[in-house]
Amino acid sequence: MALSLTVEETNFLRLVALTIGVAPRAVRCYFDGVFHPNNLQTTLLNQQKTIDNLRYRKKVLTSVQYNTLFHSGSAVTSKNFDITLMICLLRNISGIAPPVTGYDTLPSPSDISKGADLARIKHYRNKIAHSTDSKLLSQEFEDAWNDLGTAIGRLGGIVFQQECFSLKSSNLDSECYKDILLNIRHSQDEVSHTMANMVEALTKKTLDMENILQDTVPQNIRGKEYVQLNKLIIE
Questions:
Q1: What is the DSSP letter of 74?
Q2: How far, CA to CA in Å, does 114 sit from each of 33, 48, 100, 121, 151?
Q3: Distant-in-sequence, close-in-space partners of 227: CB < 8 Å, separation ≥ 6
Q4: End-to-end CA distance of the chain
Q5: Distance CA 32, CA 36 (A)
Q6: What is the pLDDT of residue 149?
Q7: 3-class DSSP state for residue 129?
Q8: Helix residue ranges, H only, the chain
Q9: What does the radius of gyration of the chain's CA atoms come to, in whole angstroms?
Q10: pLDDT digits over 10-52, tens only?
Q11: Handedness of CA 53, 58, 59, 65 (dihedral sign)
């Protein structure tokens, strides 16, 4: 018989969904506002010296990320950027002010700058990825959700605020969680892969969530899109 998730494990899954399922889309929304899609390729070429420094000297960018920025063929689009790449570009070539405490520390609640909100997302991604037990105490979960959810809302706007609100109260076997968790599994981002393993370890404890993960194709990438994505993962 399948076991039930504890409250602490459920808290962890909810924060994973928010951090990996919602936050990247909010960051992309903000990113496209800073770097207009029509001018993105030109901006990257103008900033190539700085980006080369990030890749070859500071080794902040991976070869995959760098090649995503500069390649022949189709036009460059943020749709192909993972969240770490977008945050890196925003930090280094957008001119936004860094948070008072820097990007590697959780900002104080009083700092609601865009740089601080990017640092918050970075902090909670790392916190989840380095969890050793895939659990969050209820007060810790509430604090993290409120801090991260408001940051997502400030970066992405009212639509994302509403999504965060509805996601918190949704059942873990609802459609919104189903698609988010499945997209985590199919993501090519390394942190997302780590979290996908954690999610699967937890969800195998319940029949409902196990059935969700057996349906291996998210609704929004079924058909040709899934074939293309699967090909990329295999390669």
A1: S
A2: 12, 24, 11, 11, 8
A3: none
A4: 38
A5: 5
A6: 97
A7: helix
A8: 7-16, 23-34, 40-46, 48-52, 63-69, 83-93, 114-129, 138-156, 158-169, 175-186, 190-203, 207-214, 224-234
A9: 18
A10: 898 889 889 988 999 999 999 999 999 999 999 999 999 999 9
A11: negative
Tokens of 190: 């390394």
Token pair belonging to 169: 């109260």
44: tokens are 């990257």
Question: DSSP secondary structure string, 176-231?
Answer: HHHHHHHHHHH---HHHHHHHHHHHHHHTTSHHHHHHHHS-S-GGGTTHHHHHHHH
Out of 133-137, 141-145, 176-180, the most confident range is: 141-145
Q: Look at 11-15, 92-96, 106-110, 119-123 and tell me which has the smallest mean pLDDT.
A: 11-15
Q: What is the dihedral of CA 181, 131, 84, 177, to 10 degrees?
A: 20
Residues 6+ apart with CB under 8 A from 21: 179, 180, 181, 183, 184
Maximum separation of any 2 CA atoms in the chain, in Å:
59
Burial of residue 220 (number of CB atoms within 10 Å: 0-12, 13-18, 19+): exposed
